[in-house]
Amino acid sequence: MIIGLQLEESALKKDSIRNITVTAMFVALTIVLSQIAIPLPFTDVPLSLATLAVFLSGAVLGPARGAVAQGIYVVMGLAGLPVFANFSGGFARVLGPTGGYIWGYVVAALFIGLIISKAGRRFWAYPAAMVTGLAGCYALGTAWYMIYAQIDLWAALALCVVPFLVGDAIKIVLASVLAYRLRPMLNRMAASA
Fold first, then answer.
1. pLDDT in tens, 85-116
2. What does the alpha-carbon distance between residue 180 and residue 122 come to, in Å, rounded to a whole number?
3. CB neighbour class for 35 (10 Å; exposed up to 12, middle 13-18, buried from 19)
4. CA distance from start to end of the chain
């Protein structure tokens, strides 16, 4: 009985370490992909690969851990670490014009993870979940930008959503294929550990 409890405790520790490690990897991925950003002359919102990491985070880690990974990313930026685009961070950045989109990463990862978890192993769920998650991120970010910039909805959409639609569609296709392949691999690794 004691040996059984020790083995169970050991398995739980391995699983916890694995979860922490994989979650940290997605935080790091978000930081790295956030730095691949192109500032656009007509808006404060840069074109970056950060949302690719957000899509993967929610799809591969699931709702809770995906949102936690993005939450850690946001908290690191709030603490002043240069994790956001152009190696920026701090309260001013999170409360600035793009702050709503940054907070939207947490919402997007949560929505993506929830939808994929409910749909099971169906490929169509991946892009559908990512479109839904992106819509949540866009909604929060655009509302925030409207308040910050004192502009109406149509102007905010023209500045902060429309220019990014094609790039985000490409990221959704790429993230869907990657996540569809990665998720089962991680589950097999967890089962064999």
1. 889 999 999 999 989 999 999 999 999 999 99
2. 9
3. middle
4. 22
